[in-house]
Amino acid sequence: MEVRPYYHPTTTAIIDDSPDFLANIGLNLDPSLAYRVFESPLTALAALGSVHANAAGPERFFTLYEGREQPSFDHHVIDLNIARIYREVFNDKRFHRFSVVVVDYDMPEMDGLELCRRISQSPARKVLLTGKADEKIAVQAFNEGIIDRYIPKQDPNLTSVLREAISDMQTVYFANVERMMEGALAIGPLHFLRDPFFAELFRKLSADLNIVEYYLCSSPEAMLMIDAEGASTKLLVCNDAMMQLHYQVAFDNAAPPELLDALSKGSVVPYFWRSRGLYTPQYASSWKDYVFPSSECNGLQRYRYALAEEPHGLVLPPICTFQDHLKRIDEDSGSRHSA
């Protein structure tokens, strides 16, 4: 288990030429799931192409590092821009991305397998619904990598199986999108992302706060966590080495003794956002407004963490919340999640 550098809800496309089937599925899916249904595979293809044409992959977080004094033609130095991860929260189209496509095999305009072939370059995971006579075809398509899963349509537990499949495929979608970042994020102060003990703590905090999306921040290291209504919390994280750095910088800047004592004991986690996370003399009289009582997580390392609700320095302009997204789907379609 690990903590992704970012996560937000996505949309599932469900494609079947039977309106009765789509209506029945819609009644039994999780009400917090964003999905659009399509009776026409051609209409679905147009929607999928439109969204994914404007949905850049993880390469948008990387640039060539140009700060070296002596650039080398033998190797490139790649720069991971964490600020771009955080700025995803301002992307009003982030929830529109299709992470899973569920498609019936037997349709008159185009069979489901052909549709999956046409979106083979899309990062969306493909789930094929099959009849009894189609399973051999589905197995071959799975082995060839055209689809990621197939589900017999006659399965008596189809709805629950489909719910589980969508959840699994959404997890795989983000794992694939973020694989490029794994190596870079395992180095330095962001190692908590790869700590299974911290990941379990993060899962619990997210559940307690009803978090639906989150984004990695830097200077200082934190996770910006947002619920469906747009309320924000920052999870501030420091390991022992970072706490020592905070203390040393504060000491060198003649910080108040009370602050130095709190930092040396690890009883607070600092959030000096005006100076990229570290103490400067500008906080001498107001430092208590920039520290939060800490809790401890003993994982592969020891971490001090704190939850800062709507913290100073985090002034989010109006953003598209997940509830906004669900309402817009309803308004655009005339009925819940349909298209």
What are the SSEs and their pairings?
Elements: E1 6-7, E2 11-15, H1 19-28, E3 34-38, H2 41-53, E4 62-64, E5 78-80, H3 82-86, E6 98-104, H4 112-118, E7 125-130, H5 135-143, E8 149-152, H6 158-178, H7 182-185, H8 196-208, E9 211-217, E10 222-227, E11 232-239, H9 240-252, H10 257-265, E12 268-270, E13 291-293, E14 295-298, E15 302-309, H11 322-333
Parallel strand pairs: 2-3, 2-6, 6-7, 7-8
Antiparallel strand pairs: 1-9, 4-5, 9-10, 10-11, 11-15, 12-13, 14-15
Helix pairs in contact: 9-10
Task: Describe the model.
This protein has 339 residues and is α/β, with parallel strands linked by helices. It folds into two domains: 6-56 and 89-180, Rossmann fold; 186-309, no CATH class. It is built from eleven helices and 15 strands. Strand 9 (211-217) and strand 10 form a beta hairpin. Helix 9 packs antiparallel against helix 10 (257-265).
